[in-house]
Amino acid sequence: MYGSKKAKYFGYLLALLLAIALTSTAAAQVAGPGEPGFDPGSGGPGSPGEPGNEPGTGQPNPNPGGNGPGNGGNGPGNGPGGPGNGPGNGNGNGNGNGNMNGGGNGNGGMMQPGPRAHEASGRIVYHAATPAQLVKSGDGLQYYFVGADGSTVTGPHIPSFSALAEMYPSGGWVPLLDAPNPLTGKQVNVDYIPKDKKIRVFTYYPDNEYDVNKQYIFNFGSDYVINVEAW
Q1: What is the pTM of this model?
Q2: CA atoms of 63 and 210, how far apart (whole Å)
Q3: How far is the C-alpha of 154 from the C-alpha of 138, rounded, in Å?
Q4: Shortest CA distance to 125 belongs to which of 117, 116, 113?
Q5: Digits of tens for pLDDT over the chain (231 positions)?
Q6: Strand runs (DSSP E) across 121-214, as ranges?
């Protein structure tokens, strides 16, 4: 009996040792921390790459865009000169600006005393107190500036209606006279109207104790019939 217990004891011991051995073998088979799989490279970190595009070296354009179209040139002149300023000797030329400003006699532009406004032979304005008078002269008209007392001085010579129609067949009003009356200081405007083939006179009466800058306006055609617009 003692011998069987002893054998059983040694059996347990052998089983224990075998179990320890198996456990050690299994533990040995578990992979420990191995060496790195690949040798890390020995090169240092790479240099930073160059920028993809170099900044441009061009200088800014000193003339960006320009200032748009330039100013227009000075257009053509102001029209052909009119005929001479007064009866004169026929050699007085217009003043080149398309109207016949100022008075004169064709020989030098000096204003000469004329007949009294309401007594002039060939006159077309019969209003006794008219501040403007026109007298038939050749195939045109002679304009006279009129003073407060009815005295006159010569103004420009105005061409005939046929000549005006030929020179200005269409378009806007054509200034024939644009000047102050030298006897009263009042503005005078004489215009040719191509559309109507008429001449229009705009001026003022001399100032007096009753009226200041009172207008006197009339127009007429080739028949010289006066159509009063304001008086």
Answers
A1: 0.55
A2: 66
A3: 15
A4: 117
A5: 445 555 555 565 666 666 665 555 444 444 444 444 444 444 444 444 444 444 444 444 444 444 433 444 333 333 434 434 333 333 333 333 344 444 433 333 447 898 998 899 999 999 999 999 999 999 999 999 999 999 999 999 999 999 999 999 999 999 999 999 999 999 999 999 999 999 999 999 999 999 999 999 999 999 999 999 999
A6: 132-137, 140-146, 152-158, 174-180, 187-193, 198-204
Contacts (Cβ under 8 Å, ≥6 apart) of 106? 84, 85, 86, 87, 88, 89, 90, 91, 92, 157
Q: Which amino acid is present at 195?
A: K
Compute CA distances 69 → 1, 64, 76, whole Å: 133, 14, 20
DSSP-derived letter for residue 19 is: H
Query: Residue 114: enclosing H or E segment and its boundaries?
Result: strand 113-114
Tokens 């016949």 belong to residue: 100
Of 159, 119, 116, 165, nearest in space to 139 by CA = 159
The DSSP call for residue 202 is E
Enumerate the H helices of the chain as residue ranges: 2-29, 161-167
| DSSP-assigned states of every residue in 179-194 | EE-TTT--EEEEEEET
